[in-house]
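Hey L., structure's done. Input below.
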Amino acid sequence: MLDILLFVYSVLEFTHYQKQCRVYNYFNKLYVEPNISNNELNSCIDALLTVDTDFFERAQVSSISNHITNRKQLCDALSYTPDEIAPSDKFKPVRSELTWSYTPFILDTLMKQARVLGEQYMRWNGYKRKTYLTNDGYYNVFTYENNASTKRPLIFFPGAGFGAILYVHVAKLFNRTVHMIEVPNICYATPNTNSHATGRGLSDIVEQCVGDQEHDVASHSFGSFHTSMYLNTSYTLQKIQNVYICEGFTNPADVLVNHMMPFVNTTHFDKLPALQYSYVKFILLVKLLIQNIYIQSFTKRFVRIIDVNWKDYGKIKIKYIYSENDEMMDSKYIMRKTSPDLYYCIPNGKHGSCFFGRRRKEFIQTLFNE
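Output:
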């Protein structure tokens, strides 16, 4: 009997592995046309270097970037071409080789079952769910309605991990109607497809949620990519009022090191001075999350260098929130490079303190109810 069970499990595991291999091969070969003009790329680079004035000096700490010593070399590294895929340890956004860690069948199954239970828990806590099929793939929207509030609705982009479920108790603290948007392919939130979130797709989903209403936008951690993609696509519509980027990666200050290097070139994730982990935390973060095939394909094929907050957004107010002892970024350096009126610091906090720490109620009431 045991032999039969082991045989069945081996077949399932092998089939599961083959499926992930096909996904890897598809995205690894995929080239997504960035649709960026040379003038736009140059303007973005100028804006980033104006804020991050020490980039070339600090670029020497990693073999990913130590060949970049001047602006021309940086521009060449960031140029988008459909040429041969670069090795994963080269600084080549959109065209570097994917780095993939296999997710075992039993772990994948357990996560999917936990996801089902989590969605039911969201419903018990007053959320309504809608799923939208777009050219990008499937989007889930969990809406927590607060009809008694007169405040603008809030669009919320959760971090990677388990989608909106981890933030189930957060929405109530905002004291307004909240729409939590889960994007295609990220961490068991939606059915897997052959594409990822785009700025146009995000804009369409937000319109489904709030129509022509003015609204605020907030994100946590990995969700900052989606916030900035949406912001850069839709800021001219003049419907966005306030943007809150909590422990995110799209602040122009230090974005080239703290964003592009870790997520685009994960083979050197443990070698950056800003990223200090215990061995267990490093394995959990990199092997199960950062090197997840869908996280990899999104950050290496769909996220562009211009998908950060480098433009002039007019009257839109952007506030960055950092934990003082964040393990995932050099938040102290970023805050030194950022005007004090543009950020809020959580003293002694670690990554996740803003929404999962003991002071989250105080933080949300202080910042989001201003």
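The mean pLDDT is 86. The radius of gyration is 20 Å.

-- N.
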